[in-house]
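Posting for a labmate who doesn't have an account.
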Amino acid sequence: MSQNPPNLRPDLAPKVKIQEPTRDGQPTIGMVSLGCPKALVDSERILTRLRAEGYAISPEYSGADAVIVNTCGFLDSAKAESLDAIGEALKENGKVIVTGCLGAEPDYIREHHPQILAVTGPHQYEQVLDAVHANVPPSPDPFIDLLPASGVSLTPRHYSYLKISEGCNHKCKFCIIPDMRGKLASRPAHAVMREAEKLVDNGVKELLVISQDTSAYGTDWPSEQRRGLTEQPITTLARDLGSLGAWVRLHYVYPYPNVRELIPLMSDGLILPYLDIPFQHAHPETLRRMARPAHAERTLDRIEEWRGLCPDITLRSTFIVGYPGETEEEFQTLLDWMDEAQLDRVGCFQYENVDGARSNALPDHVPAEVKQNRWDRFMEKAQAISEAKLAAKVGQIMDVIIDDIDEDGIATCRTKSDAPEIDGNLFIDEGTAGLKVGEIVSVEVDEAGEYDLWGCVR
């Protein structure tokens, strides 16, 4: 049984899954969605609109009348991946519309691929639709196609991402996301809840709450909209989502003091005892150069407090090694902090320059071989912590959600501690007859590895 590799990128969404029936003569649009879950939600919204207008959706290039490529621009390596995907779509299809984060740099894209049909930036849904209409006019069957829009899901039916806001008010020097997606813009709570209710009504068992800064949700609302609130808007939203009966998993939660309000909801079982928090580093000087809050000691105190309130809490985070100016002493501080924090799930990037990021101008960039060495040492540390934590779970009984059952009858599942694609899995390799994808079952853990568990149904 293969295990998750230790270099699994924490910024990627699950692979797109499209199974759409078509009719003869129906105009067809292909979709390639790259990057993070937030981009995947944008792709779902675009495709939902297109399907409501009578377009068929295809995961293939060859059978489509045009292809939309939703790009990522978070890192230079992600930009290169996006350019490659655009080139492949042009080669296989010829008619390509580009959108997404890299779409904020249209001249850069056209410099490499001048033959594309159109370029739009992130969450510019109307412009994408205009480009599709101009190049592939709709031809709906009024008795079949022009029905109220039902959502197109690019994930398995039993889980779905729920985006609660756009943009970010942070000014981290290594990040250009605020330049591409703008300042924080929180969705109205009633709109989020309406979408969540529809998802649960349609069979979704797990809601994955995403944004650029989840714990800041609602802080951008005008004072009159927040008047009378007795707690942070994210706390109220999390409590309301927890009342729907599905698993609720919070991603991208900055470690503000108000995060403490969420922990009792986890202890009470309303939302999953899981926090995805981007700590990025632990040394105060490194954090200062990143323009991040430089209170690593206070963060350790908060972690201890969270675990005191909810002993079962799972903490996941991402880190950057080799940031400009990072000394061996600063990196060692990060390793020592990891020993103290004992995080459950960890991802790590080697620092990369990104066009437009202020960190590019910092002095003392770290050589590539040093970054690789530090990444290796960091992941060795994280792997040892993960292995020890998973070994302690052997003999426990826990609920898991079934993501897949292969032809050999092996079920790939996730515990409450595991988000899709970025964390580990629990495998059931016998006694799976009668189990179904999307089902939540109780399992006794009988074996542990570095990143994954194995168990049997109780």
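Reply:
Got it, the structure tokens are right above this. Residues 397-457 form a domain with the OB fold (Dihydrolipoamide Acetyltransferase, E2P) fold (CATH 2.40.50.140).
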